[in-house]
């Protein structure tokens, strides 16, 4: 039944944004609140899973004894934490909004507004956490990614599904009202490797977490 359908399973989830340091007071970040990832973590724990949640800076907390939260700040830290737990995990869920770039050389003192020309920030590509782990995923491991799109949504999501070696991908589009970052609601489609496609209406992220976890359980 519901309480034990993930009993004995280890689930690793990334959530929230990453902050990439520019100087001691500034960073490059994004609007992720962590709500989607935390809701999935709660739902997996409710099914009896042992959950490791690697989260960027968010204001959310959980009291669930089956969820262990590792707090990180940057993409490099998120990779390190996630990678160290990936091989012992049965199910991997990548819901974090990871910054694709970071400032190449963060400055150790506050950048002052003193020169006549605005400063330029040189960027370096961050590692792709889902791709790094996807490359070494074993047959006995299941992974689900997310795709946050603004255009050519379906095609881009299918490309990410393939490239990052996910078993399934959750597509959300910033063109849909009430979907994506911050809101309590989201509107998603779940696209499977088998082309099994599930379109869900706009609803609460906790309710969608139930649909996502049910999809995974049916797919295992
Ligand atoms: O946190 P909320 O406010 O509730 O918002 C939820 C959400 C919008 C953040 C979430 O639903 C979502 O879409 N998360 C993924 C956002 C994203 O960055 O998607 P992407 O299309 O850029 O990345 C594709 C996949 O690769 C994702 O699974 C992402 O976690 C992963 N990735 C991307 C880049 C990177 N360097 N490392 C990664 O692991």
Total DSSP helices = 5
Q: Judging from the principal axes of the Cα atoms, what is the shape? A: globular
Mean pLDDT: 96
In percent terms, what proportion of residues is strand? 25-35%
Low-confidence segments, given as residue ranges, are: none
The CATH superfamily is identified as CoaB-like
CATH architecture, by name, is 3-Layer(aba) Sandwich
Could you describe the largest sheet, including whether it forms a barrel?
A: 8 strands, mixed
Please write the string of helix (H) and strand (E) elements.
EEEHEEHEEEHEHEEEEEH
Task: Describe the protein.
This protein has 220 residues and is an alpha/beta fold. It has one domain (2-103, 123-219): Rossmann fold, CATH 3.40.50.10300. Helix content is 26%, strand content 27%. The chain is built from 5 helices and 14 strands. The strands form 4 sheets. Strands 5-4-1-6-9-10-12-13 form an 8-stranded mixed β-sheet, with helices on both faces. Helix 1 crosses helix 5 (205-219). The longest helix is centred in the last third of the chain and has 15 residues, at 205-219. The protein is globular and about 60 Å long. Residues 14, 16, 32-36, 75, 94-98, 100, 126, 128-130, 145-148, 160, 164, 172, 180-182, 205 line the site of ligand PMT. One of its GO terms (biological process) is pantothenate catabolic process. It catalyses: (R)-4'-phosphopantothenate + L-cysteine + CTP = N-[(R)-4-phosphopantothenoyl]-L-cysteine + CMP + diphosphate + H(+); N-[(R)-4-phosphopantothenoyl]-L-cysteine + H(+) = (R)-4'-phosphopantetheine + CO2. Residues 6-217 form the DNA/pantothenate metabolism flavoprotein C-terminal domain.
């Amino acid at each position: 039944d519901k309480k034990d359908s993930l009993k004995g399973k280890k689930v690793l989830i990334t959530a929230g944004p990453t902050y990439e340091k520019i100087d001691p007071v500034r960073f490059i970040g994004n609007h992720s609140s962590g709500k989607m990832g935390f809701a999935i973590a709660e739902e997996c724990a409710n099914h009896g899973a042992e959950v490791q949640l690697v989260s960027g800076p968010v204001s959310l907390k959980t009291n669930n004894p089956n969820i262990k939260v590792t707090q990180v700040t940057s993409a490099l830290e998120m990779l390190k934490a996630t990678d160290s737990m990936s091989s012992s995990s049965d199910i991997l869920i990548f819901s974090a909004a990871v910054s694709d770039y970071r400032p190449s050389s963060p400055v150790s003192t506050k950048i002052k507004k003193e020169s006549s020309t605005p400063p330029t920030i040189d960027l370096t590509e961050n590692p792709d956490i889902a791709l790094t782990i996807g490359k070494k995923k074993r047959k006995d491991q299941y992974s689900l990614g997310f795709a946050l799109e603004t255009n050519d949504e379906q095609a881009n999501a299918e490309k990410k599904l393939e490239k990052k070696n996910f078993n399934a991908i959750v597509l959300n589009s910033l063109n849909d009202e009430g979907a994506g970052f911050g809101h309590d609601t989201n509107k998603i489609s779940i696209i499977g490797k088998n082309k099994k496609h599930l379109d869900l209406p706009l609803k609460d992220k906790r309710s969608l977490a139930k649909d996502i976890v049910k999809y995974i359980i049916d797919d295992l």
